[in-house]
C-alpha cells in the first residue's frame, strides 16, 4: 500500500493505493491497483490489515478535521473501513470512534478476529473486537486514565 499523504511524504496530490505481488513473482502486478483516494474513500490511508477472505481493514484520514502537519498527530481524524480486495470496493465504514495518531500498528488479526486499538478523544481508549464472520463489533479492553496514544499492539510468542 502506498501512503503519500501529508504525514508520510507530504504529497497529497498522489493517491493512496493498494498493489499486489502475485505468488512466486518478485515485482508488482501491473494489472492490479486499487486507487483508494479517488474511488473508495476520497482521502489518504495510512494502514492496511488483511483479515481473510479477500478482505482488509484500512485506516483512513479525514482531511477536513485537521489543519496540517502540526495537529495531524493529536487530532482524532482517522476512520476504519472494511474493503473487498477482489472487487476493489469499500464494503462499509466500521462503526468506531475517530482515532488519533498518524502511523500506528493498531490491528492484530488472530483466530479469525480483528483487535483494533482506538484512541478516541471523546469515547476513551479501547481495544475493539471485530468478528468478520458475524460482522459483530464490540468494545474490549479499556486503557483507563491518561493515555495519549496506543502506538502499537503486538502478539508475543512465548
Structure report:
This protein has 158 residues and is mainly beta. The chain has 2 helices and 10 strands. It is globular, with a radius of gyration of 16 Å.
Structural class: mainly beta
Q: What is the 3D shape?
A: globular
Helix content: under 10%
What is the total tally of β strands?
Answer: 10
| Biggest beta-sheet profile | 4 strands, antiparallel
Order of SSEs: EEHEEHEEEEEE
Give average pLDDT, whole number. Answer: 86
Radius of gyration based on Cα positions: 16 Å
Multimeric status of the protein: single chain
Topology overview:
Layout: E1 17-19, E2 33-35, H1 36-40, E3 45-52, E4 55-61, H2 69-72, E5 78-84, E6 89-93, E7 107-110, E8 113-120, E9 124-131, E10 136-142
Antiparallel strand pairs: 1-2, 3-4, 4-5, 5-6, 7-8, 8-9, 9-10
Defining key terms:
158 residues, single chain, four-stranded antiparallel sheet, globular, 6% helix, mainly beta, 2 helices, 10 strands
In a few lines, what is going on in this structure?
With 158 residues, the protein is mainly beta.
Amino acid at each position: 500500500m502506498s501512503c503519500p499523504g501529508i504525514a508520510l511524504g507530504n504529497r497529497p496530490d498522489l493517491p493512496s493505493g493498494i498493489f499486489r505481488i502475485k505468488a512466486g513473482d518478485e515485482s508488482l502486478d501491473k494489472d492490479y491497483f486499487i486507487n483508494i483516494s479517488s474511488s473508495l474513500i476520497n482521502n489518504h490511508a495510512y494502514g492496511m490489515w488483511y483479515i481473510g477472505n479477500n478482505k482488509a481493514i484500512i485506516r483512513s484520514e479525514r482531511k477536513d478535521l485537521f489543519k496540517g502537519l502540526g495537529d495531524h498527530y493529536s487530532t482524532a481524524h482517522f476512520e476504519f473501513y472494511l474493503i473487498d480486495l477482489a472487487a476493489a470496493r469499500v464494503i462499509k465504514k466500521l462503526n468506531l470512534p475517530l482515532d488519533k495518531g498518524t502511523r500506528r500498528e493498531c490491528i492484530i488479526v488472530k483466530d479469525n478476529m480483528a483487535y483494533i486499538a482506538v484512541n478516541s478523544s471523546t469515547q476513551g481508549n479501547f481495544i475493539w473486537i471485530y468478528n468478520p464472520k458475524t460482522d459483530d463489533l464490540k468494545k474490549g479492553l479499556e486503557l483507563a486514565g491518561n493515555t495519549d496514544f496506543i502506538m502499537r499492539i503486538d502478539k508475543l510468542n512465548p
